[in-house]
């Protein structure tokens, strides 16, 4: 089963990966992009050495960038390996998805070929997944996803900082990084070609006419979407010309596209992002509408071009399809915030959701503030007579800003007592399974995992849409249910306990677990940890109370 720290490690890795992928798109030139790719493998993926081998026009691969070791850079940078030697490497070893791993037990046959390398001999591994100094790991970069298209280059990495071969998480991260690196390198080449064309356009009329065909082909046959729009005047932003790639991406004919501007096509939630994007060098990630009414995530990059030296200026927009990356990001974010076994929100996500409902101002502070307005220094109608501003000097307010009107719905716990006073609040039900450890010890972890999955399903089925069921860790679960009174929360705990009690069939045998529930209440002025601790303590009180009742019944 997954340890409690893994989601945090995954979230940290995800943040680092997002950062280095973002940096790929900020490099100004192809050389900067290649070096950024090598550096990103060090800073974002946890390797100590990395090299980018780029396919040349003649098919051979040149070491275009090295990161992590000045000695390795001096030894390898600029050296060329033949395509035949690289094809041999990419057909050997073990395939980890799109990755190629050649263990040291097989890689010795490559020691004498012409591919630049830095590997040195080392001692035998001490445990099965320990990284050996002669191990080789390659991430090919292709012009299309999932290993399609032509080979663009190969990222080679070495020396994981943790000393182990990458697991499933590390392999997936490296594959995703290689895919994004291929896009960044292709875009850098495209931008370099476009920039060279734009320089020629600005020089003289003869150079302008000579470059028009080059620009047209680069525009029309670019793999990513391209558009030219008016700049300035009443028709600012109106699309004048779009290429086939953009028309296919949005499912719209070129003639129909000329009726729109990007502001007409952008998702309503992203209009602010589009408006904040500057014209020159502006970049934004947003959603554009397809003809069928769906939306696709794209990255927009703007450049300003002139028709002639003194002619009108136009906006050239590069539109890149990032739907696949966004989908990967959402998947990775979900994995970082959800329990891998049950699919429920994990401990970190539970605390985030609970913390979002809490504030540091305790209940009653608003009422106390308004009550103070009718005290000394105010007239019978609550207006200040001492020359001060209405809320000046009142705790919980800064200056004259009425802090209670902050659009935050303050949580107040129902009155603590046997009687239900009718007030509602956010109930926090802390659930601990009874008898789970004995099942785990007797039948093994596979049975225990199956029990946890079924308990998670039963808990989820027993709550309302909008309620949260989370796995805190081990055999502990937490339910957040808003808008409940004391009696409602007690009834919910009984229903959930009764849903858990029926036998659970696993591999032909029936096993039973019980459940103890503690009911706490979220209230502003408390932290998420304090709320969970309160519910946990009440759960243990309830567990001890039931144990005593069972012993008396047995006696």
UniProtKB/TrEMBL annotation:
The keyword RNA-binding does not apply. Keywords: Coiled coil, Nucleotidyltransferase, Transferase. PROSITE patterns: GGDEF, PAC, PAS. Its EC number is 2.7.7.65. Residues 282-334 form the PAC domain. Residues 187-214 form a coiled coil. The keyword Ribosomal protein does not apply. Residues 211-293 form the PAS domain. Residues 424-555 form the GGDEF domain. Signal peptide: none annotated. SMART domains: GGDEF, PAC, PAS. One of its GO terms (molecular function) is diguanylate cyclase activity. NCBIfam families: GGDEF (TIGR00254), sensory_box (TIGR00229). It comes from Streptomyces auratus AGR0001. It holds the Pfam family PAS. This is Diguanylate cyclase.
């Amino acid at each position: 089963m997954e340890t409690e720290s893994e989601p945090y490690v995954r979230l940290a890795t995800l943040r680092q990966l997002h950062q280095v992928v973002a940096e790929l798109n900020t490099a100004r030139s192809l050389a900067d992009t290649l070096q950024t790719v090598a550096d990103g493998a060090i800073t974002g993926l946890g390797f100590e050495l990395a090299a980018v081998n780029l396919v040349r026009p003649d098919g051979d691969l040149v070491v275009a960038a090295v990161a992590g070791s000045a000695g390795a850079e001096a030894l390898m940078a600029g050296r060329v390996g033949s395509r035949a030697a690289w094809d041999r490497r990419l057909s050997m070893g073990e395939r980890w998805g799109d990755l190629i791993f050649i263990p040291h037990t097989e890689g010795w046959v490559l020691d004498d070929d012409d591919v630049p390398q830095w590997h040195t001999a080392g001692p035998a591994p001490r445990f099965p997944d320990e990284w050996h100094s002669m191990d080789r790991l390659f991430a090919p970069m292709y012009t299309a996803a999932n290993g399609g298209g032509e080979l663009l280059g190969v990222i080679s990495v070495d020396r994981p900082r943790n000393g182990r071969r990458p697991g499933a998480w590390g392999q997936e991260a490296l594959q995703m990084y290689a895919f994004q690196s291929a896009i960044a390198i292709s875009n850098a080449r495209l931008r370099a070609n476009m920039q060279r064309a734009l320089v020629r356009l600005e020089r003289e009329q003869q150079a302008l006419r000579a470059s028009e065909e080059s620009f047209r082909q680069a525009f029309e046959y670019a793999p990513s979407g391209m558009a030219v729009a008016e700049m300035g005047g009443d028709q600012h932003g109106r699309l004048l010309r779009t290429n086939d790639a953009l028309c296919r991406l949005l499912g719209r004919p070129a003639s129909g596209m000329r009726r729109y501007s990007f502001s007409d096509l952008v998702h309503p939630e992203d209009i602010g992002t589009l408006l904040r994007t500057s014209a020159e060098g502006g970049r934004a990630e947003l959603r554009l509408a397809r003809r069928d009414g769906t939306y696709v995530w794209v990255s927009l990059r703007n450049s300003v071009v002139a028709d002639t030296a003194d002619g009108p200026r136009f906006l050239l927009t590069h539109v890149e399809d990032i739907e696949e990356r966004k989908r990967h990001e959402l998947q990775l974010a979900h994995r970082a915030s959800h329990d891998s076994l049950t699919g429920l929100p994990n401990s970190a996500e539970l605390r985030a959701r609970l913390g979002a409902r809490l504030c540091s101002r305790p209940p009653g502070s608003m009422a106390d503030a308004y009550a103070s307005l009718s005290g000394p220094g105010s007239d019978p109608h609550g207006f200040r007579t001492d020359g001060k501003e209405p809320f000046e000097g009142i705790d919980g307010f800064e200056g004259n800003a009425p802090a209670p009107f902050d659009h935050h719905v303050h949580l107040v716990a129902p009155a603590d007592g046997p009687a239900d006073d009718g007030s509602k609040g956010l109930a926090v039900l802390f659930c601990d399974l009874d008898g789970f450890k004995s099942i785990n010890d007797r039948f093994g972890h596979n049975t225990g995992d199956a029990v946890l999955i079924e308990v998670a399903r039963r808990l989820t089925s027993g709550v309302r849409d909008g309620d949260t069921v989370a796995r805190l860790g081990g055999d502990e679960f937490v339910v957040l249910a808003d808008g409940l009174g004391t009696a409602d929360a007690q009834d919910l705990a009984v229903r959930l306990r009764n849903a858990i009690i029926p036998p659970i069939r696993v591999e032909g045998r029936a096993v039973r677990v019980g459940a103890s529930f503690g009911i706490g209440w979220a209230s502003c002025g408390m932290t998420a940890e304090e709320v969970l601790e309160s519910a946990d303590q009440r759960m243990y009180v309830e567990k001890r109370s039931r144990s005593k009742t069972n012993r008396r019944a047995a006696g």
